[in-house]
Amino acid sequence: MNHSIAIFGAGSIGAYVGAALIAGGADVVLIARPRSCERYVREGIAISDLEGRREHIDAARIHCSADPAALADAGLILVTVKSADTAAAAQALAAHARRDALVLSLQNGIGNADTLRAALPGMTVLGGMVPFNVVQTADGRFHRGTEGQLMAEASPALATWLPAFAAAGLPLSERSDFAAVQWGKLLLNLNNAVNALSGLPLKAELSQRDYRRCLALLMEEALRALAASGIAPAQIGGVAPRRLPTMLRLPDWIYRRIASASLKIDPEARSSMWEDLQAGRRTEVDYLNGAVARLAQRAGLDAPANRRIVALVHEAEAGKGQAMAGAQLLAALRA
Ligand SMILES: NC(=O)C1=CN([C@@H]2O[C@H](COP(=O)(O)OP(=O)(O)OC[C@H]3O[C@@H](n4cnc5c(N)ncnc54)[C@H](OP(=O)(O)O)[C@@H]3O)[C@@H](O)[C@H]2O)C=CC1
Ligand SMILES: CC(C)(CO)C(=O)C(=O)O
User: Fold this and answer.
1) Which of 119, 151, 223, 327 is packed most tightly, with the most Cβ within 10 A?
2) Angle at Cα 82 formed by Cα 329 and Cα 22, nearest 5°?
3) Within 13 A of 310's CA, how many CA atoms are on the CB side?
4) To test ligand 1's pocket by mutation, which of 13, 29, 276 has the most ligand atoms within 8 angstroms of CB?
5) What is the pLDDT of residues 58-94, one digit of tens each?
6) 98-155 residue pLDDT tens
7) Which residues contact 36 (CB under 8 A, 6 or more apart)?
8) Which of 49, 132, 244, 265 to mutate to test the pocket of ligand 2 (most atoms within 8 A of CB)?
């Protein structure tokens, strides 16, 4: 059977985007771990969002395989594995993908599209950006708990596929300043580690000033490193990057008023890094806060709070430590 779109790594983002594309009428094959595939083809996939969409894609409409050879017919391949798995995904694509397939990385971090490009010479590989959050709920739904539109590096190769994204209810916009978009998103992803260590849902965590102070510290270091490297991050969301730290440090009652749009988060939404810690998986902290520390170092600067939070998340990955209160985390980042 021919599948025009393949999703490589159907976890939270891949299953959500894949199911939405199927609901919109696209011909999709999911590449996932055997356990995930067994579940999807047994139960189907349920998706929901904070605007009230609830949809169940019946098992009969799900094509899923743990064998990457199943993507051989796809004209579009969405890569949705975590950053540490990108190199392995790239090898699988090199072995099985059509040479004329378009590859779109829907991943956080800065280097994933480059990793794919390096392994797929001659193929078109584009960076993409997912602004919204998806978590798996206790009843197995893939729930989008925040807003935002998919973005991708501008390319004529996208034109064929844009209608499928629109029909899925996930319109994709093209950006010619994609490196700036990636860094703008990475600034927001600096909260992933704070959120994971807090053990709280995003909304509860961001409602507490001490956690926001932690994030402000991490962002300031990143903004300094970006400025020293001549990179101007794009604005993702309602607030300009340079204004984020000041806004985050406001007292709770003012923050709630001024940043009401930033707090338009479903109470059950949590960062993908929290999901990783819960599942006992390695996180993407080296690709997010670690990327800031490396950028700073290349610019002759230091980013101590980002370095410290990388170490704290690694300790949490090793099962050490409990959820940290805001004041405790702030003290650890300033130590
Ligand atoms: N979740 C979110 O809200 C958001 C996530 N993102 C980004 O999207 C990307 C994906 O995140 P997310 O969906 O949360 O990640 P998940 O871990 O939920 O999903 C990735 C899935 O891919 C599977 N996988 C990895 N390698 C292979 C392989 N070779 N073959 C088959 N399956 C494989 C993983 O299995 P296993 O775990 O067993 O390795 C996992 O089930 C990340 O870069 C993340 O930062 C961006 C915005 C929001
Ligand atoms: C949407 C957001 C910023 C939520 O934390 C995210 O990218 C993630 O969880 O990885």
Assistant:
1) 151
2) 125
3) 16
4) 13
5) 999 999 999 999 999 999 999 999 999 999 999 999 9
6) 999 999 999 999 999 999 999 999 999 999 999 999 999 999 999 999 999 999 999 9
7) 10, 11, 15, 64
8) 132
